[in-house]
């Protein structure tokens, strides 16, 4: 009987030591993807050089509507804009089309880690300026890659995708044949 127990013990030990290590099913791991669409405001009214907060020109209004069409197939979760007439007016057509309220932000006070956390797994539009938009992109990708947009350029779209903490960025230029 002792021999039988001994053999049974050995077989159990061999069986337990030969079992494969538990594996993690990678298909069940959750992937986090956040996508940020960053644009500069559309063409602003330059007729009064003393106006620090001008509205958009007719061409700028056309471009703002063009952005809404470009982003129509993107299911946005949030829209952010600086608190200026030109950025608010640029964001407005997309806001109306997608029924999303615009949230205002101050680019000098943005806590990028908190912003990323609050917008995890979301599609977000951010409207800024020739200097703040590339700066925001750099903060999102944690790299000094982009610099101020030329003052005559209003059709730049940055798409920052952060997948499981790893950012990628695309820069596109959209022409707008909007009436002046």
UniProtKB/TrEMBL annotation:
Q: Which domain of life is it from?
A: Bacteria
Q: Which Pfam families match?
A: His_Phos_1
Family annotation (InterPro entries): His_Pase_superF_clade-1 (IPR013078), His_PPase_superfam (IPR029033)
Q: What is this protein called?
A: Histidine phosphatase superfamily (Branch 1)
Instruction: Report the source organism.
Output: Maribacter dokdonensis
């Amino acid at each position: 009987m002792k021999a039988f127990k001994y053999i049974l013990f050995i077989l159990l030990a061999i069986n337990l030591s030969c079992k494969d290590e538990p594996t993690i099913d990678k298909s069940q791991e959750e992937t986090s993807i956040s996508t940020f669409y960053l644009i500069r405001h559309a063409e602003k009214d330059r007729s009064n050089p003393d106006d620090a907060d001008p509205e958009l020109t007719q061409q700028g209004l056309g471009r703002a509507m063009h952005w809404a069409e470009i982003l129509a197939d993107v299911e946005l979760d949030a829209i952010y804009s600086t608190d200026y007439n030109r950025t608010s007016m640029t964001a407005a057509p997309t806001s109306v089309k997608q029924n999303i309220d615009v949230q205002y932000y101050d680019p000098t006070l943005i806590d990028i880690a908190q912003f990323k956390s609050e917008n995890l797994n979301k599609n977000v539009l951010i409207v800024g300026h020739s200097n703040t938009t590339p700066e925001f992109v750099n903060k999102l990708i944690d790299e000094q890659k982009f610099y101020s947009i030329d003052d005559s350029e209003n059709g730049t779209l940055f798409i920052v995708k952060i997948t499981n903490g790893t950012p990628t960025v695309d820069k596109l230029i959209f022409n707008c044949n909007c009436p002046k």
